[in-house]
């Protein structure tokens, strides 16, 4: 299948690219940088990557690009994906997360393509559901509490509108938290894994943490991209699908798993500056709709995910200059 992936050079984009290559899809990637980062250099001989800033490109230019590439499926991953960064730059977040999705969908329409579009949103758009709404289904009201989650929820509504108004072949994936090898330390599990590896290596004396009572549904990124691939052929156009493991993990438990994997004792210190005032205490997905449509099931446990992340940071620290 001819696939086009926006945001291909990011954390999730790299894992999706690897998954599509394994399935022998013909892949073209778009990225604002137009190049592969060092940890994805192994893909450079397999996938062509082109520069494309979806917050800046015109509909006309994007239409021309799609007409030349003729993709059978588009995976739209390009986004400003950090909730805290979105608070610092709300306009930039909306411009990319909603504006980029609008440019893409309008370009698909203008090019006259019958391309399947997998529009990737986020489970954080549900905000802070009540305990009675757990696990969270697609019918839960949206109550976003930052520009990232609001812009992602809006992009989902845009996808529904485009399907209803123009017949665009679009499905909306709403993934909950996901983690895995190569994840940035800007995200909570990536940060914990990196800190544990740094303590092992003698670089840091202890692990600094914020609120460890938060419970999240952490799916492995390799399971998540497999879900996107299944939605490309089995999802129903115009529908929204939650994507998550259905299992809540308390951050304190995740840290204990990492401490158990560590080769040295790990001291932990709570840093008040890391405690966020708008943290959601509990968010777990009901992904039964996705399972019914595609047969998707998670294959990676949280224990395996954390072990692979820790091994990745150990390797990164060994290979980086001290």
Key features of this structure:
single chain; 322 residues; alpha/beta; seven-stranded parallel sheet; three-stranded mixed sheet; 16% strand; globular
Report on this model:
With 322 residues, this protein is of the alpha/beta class. It is 41% helix and 16% strand. It is built from eleven helices and 14 strands. It has helices spanning 11-22, 59-69, 83-88, 90-97, 99-110, 147-166, 188-200, 221-234, 251-261, 288-294, 302-319; strands at residues 2-6, 26-31, 48-51, 73-76, 116-120, 170-175, 178-179, 207-209, 215-217, 219-220, 240-243, 248-250, 268-270, 282-283. The strands form four sheets. The protein has a seven-stranded parallel sheet with strand order 3-2-1-4-5-6-11, sandwiched between helices. The protein has a three-stranded mixed sheet with strand order 12-9-14. A two-stranded parallel ribbon has the order 7-10. Helix 4 packs parallel to helix 6. The longest helix is centred in the middle third of the chain and has 20 residues, at 147-166. It is globular, with a radius of gyration of 19 Å. The mean pLDDT is 96.
């Amino acid at each position: 299948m001819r696939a086009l992936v926006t945001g291909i050079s990011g954390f999730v984009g790299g894992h999706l690219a690897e998954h599509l290559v394994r399935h022998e899809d013909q892949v073209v990637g778009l990225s604002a940088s137009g190049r592969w980062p060092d940890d994805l250099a192994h893909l450079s001989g397999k996938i062509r990557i082109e520069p494309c800033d979806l917050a800046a490109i015109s509909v006309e230019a994007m239409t021309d690009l799609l007409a030349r590439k003729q993709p059978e499926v588009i995976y739209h991953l390009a986004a400003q994906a950090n909730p805290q960064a979105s608070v610092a730059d709300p306009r930039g977040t909306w411009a990319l997360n909603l504006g980029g999705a609008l440019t893409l969908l309008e370009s698909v329409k203008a090019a006259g393509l019958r391309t399947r579009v997998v529009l990737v949103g986020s489970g954080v758009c549900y905000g802070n559901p009540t305990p009675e709404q757990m696990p969270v289904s697609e019918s839960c009201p949206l109550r976003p509490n930052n520009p990232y989650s609001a812009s992602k929820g809006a992009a989902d509504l845009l996808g529904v509108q485009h399907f209803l108004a123009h017949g665009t072949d679009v499905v909306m994936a709403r993934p909950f938290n996901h983690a895995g090898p190569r994840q940035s330390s800007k995200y909570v599990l990536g940060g914990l894994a990196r800190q544990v590896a740094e303590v092992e290596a003698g670089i840091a004396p202890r692990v600094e943490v914020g609120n460890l009572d938060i419970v999240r549904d952490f799916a492995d990124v390799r399971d998540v991209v497999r879900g996107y691939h299944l939605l490309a052929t089995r999802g129903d156009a115009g529908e929204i699908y939650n994507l998550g493991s259905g299992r809540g993990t308390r951050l304190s438990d995740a840290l204990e798993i990492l401490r158990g994997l560590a080769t040295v004792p790990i001291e932990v210190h709570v840093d008040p500056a890391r405690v966020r005032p708008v943290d959601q205490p509990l968010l777990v997905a009901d992904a039964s709709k996705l399972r019914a449509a595609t047969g998707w099931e998670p294959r990676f446990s949280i224990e395996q995910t954390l072990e692979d992340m820790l091994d990745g940071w150990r390797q990164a620290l060994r290979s980086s200059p001290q």
